[in-house]
Design goal:
By secondary structure, the protein is of the alpha+beta class. The protein folds into three domains: about 120 residues, no CATH class; about 60 residues, Orthogonal Bundle (Helix Hairpins); about 150 residues, Heat Shock Protein 90, CATH 3.30.565. The chain contains eleven helices and seven strands. The strands form two sheets. A five-stranded mixed beta sheet has the order 2-4-5-7-6. A two-stranded antiparallel ribbon has the order 1-3. A hairpin with a 5-residue loop joins strand 6 and strand 7. Helix 5 runs antiparallel to helix 6 and helix 6 packs parallel to helix 10. The chain starts with a helix and ends with a helix.
Length: about 350
Amino acid sequence: MGLRARLAVALFGTVTFVFVAHFVYWEIPWVPPTYTPCFEVDSMVCRVTRKIPIGDFAQFGIVLAASVPLVGLLVWWVLAPVRRLLPAIAQIGPQNLGHRIRPRRGRDEIKQLGRALDTMMNGIAAGYEGQRSFAANASHELRTPLALQRTLIEVGMAEPLTPDQSTLLASQLLETNARNERLIEGLLVLSQADQGLRSTAVQPLDDITAGVVDSHARTAADADVKLSADASPYEVEGDAVLLERLVRNLVHNAIKYNQPGGTVAVTVGAADAALTVENTGPVIPPEQVARLFEPFTRLATGRIDHSGGSGLGLAIARSIVRAHGGTITATSLDGGGLRVAVRLPRADTRADARTAK
């Protein structure tokens, strides 16, 4: 029986009991205590008793005393389904995230509560599993270059090296160390974005994007990729450093995963998005696009190659967009390539002006 039905039964039972007790009270062969108010004495007690039916106090007291145990019993019975949930909830913990209440079918409040708790636990378990997978992947990404560094150092210590060999060894160590720095920096930025924004201000997204595009012009030219930008005025409320990192990651990926003679088109202030980055490149199956936002993954083998980058670019972009209250989506293009659209709420410049005044 649902909680609502139990409350209805409890209310009906309480009212019925009061009426029955009232009837029994007058059917008992006894003389109930009475009190006759005084009418002649002009005192405070007489004035009060003339207005309050003190003669009914005995009846009310006896019925109330008889009703208290019944009300307590009814409350215990009404809350019984809630008590049955407590052991199941108490079993949930970090080592038992798969436990579920699994209530039976029904629309009463207790079953709805059980289903809501199961839904909440599904989300917690998914988040916990995601964090554990992320930690495992990060450990793998850090262990691989560290093992490579150890090998290079052992090779250098095993036998004397020529100047050319020493130069090659040093360059390989520097390259491996630079990759470690990029990975650690990416992890720090991702952690900062996941924690949210500590302070915000109105930021010109068009100016930030223009600066990022200018800084990547040489990289695009070296990769034989045509980089273009169409930036309309668009202001958002957020953190300038994180917004710049967002645009930089998207533009960098668009150039890196492109093809000779390809293009990268960056647009700010379009009708459907605050920022769009569209690039040519290899054909991406539509069902695989969502995986691009997972850390340390690629479509071919499930893990990024180690030829540069930390594998956190789109994961960082997603966290930054979420921290700014927006959404980011990616769409594969028919001829190959990708279109990434970032939707961010436009800043209310008039409200900010009033606040500054």
